Amino acid sequence: MSDTSWSRRRLAHLGLAVLGCAALSFAIFRPLRAAAAEKGPIRIGFLTVKTGALAAGGRQMEEGLALYLDAAGAAATCGFSGHR
Prior knowledge:
This protein has three helices and no strands. The chain has helices at residues 8-37, 55-72, 75-78. It is elongated. It starts with 7 loop residues before the first helix and ends in a 6-residue tail after the last helix.
C-alpha cells in the first residue's frame, strides 16, 4: 500500500525541486537567448564517423548532405567543405 498523503516535508521537497528546475532552466536558456540575438551566419554542425567499421556510412551521409546542398543551391552560401 503506497502512502499518497502530502506532508509538509514532501511539499517542501517538491517546491525546492520546482525552484531548482526553474533556476537550472534559466541558467541554461538565458545565454541561448543572448546568442540568438546576435546577428550573423548560423553554423550547424554535422557529426559523422570517419574511421572504423562504420566509416562507410559516415562517408555516405557526407555525400548525401553534399548532394542535398547542391540540389538546394545552398552549398555556396553555407560553406560546407566536408571537414572542419
